Amino acid sequence: MKVDRKLVVLGIISLVIICIVGIGFNYKRFSTPTTKVKKEVVNKPKIAKDVAVILETVKVKETTEKKTEDVSSTEKTEKKSEKVVEKAETTPKTEPEPTPQPEIVYDGLTLDELATKLNRSLGSSLSGYGYKFASRSLELGVDPYLAVAIVLHETGCSWSCSALVQNKNNVGGMVGNGGYIAFASLDAGIDAFLNNLYKNYYAYGLTTPEQINKKYAASTAWASKINYYIGKIKAS
Hints:
By secondary structure, the chain is mainly alpha-helical. The protein has nine helices and two strands. It folds into two domains: about 80 residues; about 120 residues, Orthogonal Bundle (Lysozyme), CATH 1.10.530. The longest helix has about 60 residues. The protein is rod-shaped and about 145 Å long. The chain starts with a helix and ends with a helix.
């Protein structure tokens, strides 16, 4: 329980005064009139002086304690502020993650954009296979425009695919020992065509319609027809 210091001090002062008055009263009873006057003259200033000293001591003590409390409160506030600042400094800042930029894979286009471009030229049974041609051609290092141009020339899939595509999934007019090769699916037929274009032509440095023409087709007009389709694909 908190005790009011001022009340305690006043109580002490009161006790001191009572004691002094009691002593004076007893002295009055047993001393001569001359001695009494002399004693009262001597003791009154002393009582006032003692009371003043006591009050001053209490005042100084209260002032000191108040300053101590203020300093303590200030230190607590500063420490709390330091902790807040320290916490703010140690808390890692979360930087926003940069937005990933789409990768350009060919002719200034992303893979999806390239697939969309090829799909504009592919029709009939090959409609929607632009991504297959784009991704597989880039894996092999083959020009996707050239590959699709050959397919369009060989199969007519700009409008309606030939029976070779519809019945045998053969998209490049590939011939084996027993005639035109049949494949289990269009994906398998596309993979076989692109692998053949890479292994038998690109691997030997034959990468343009003119260079491929000499080995691929007997007609010298074949290269110009392929270039026509390449231009059409680029313009789409």
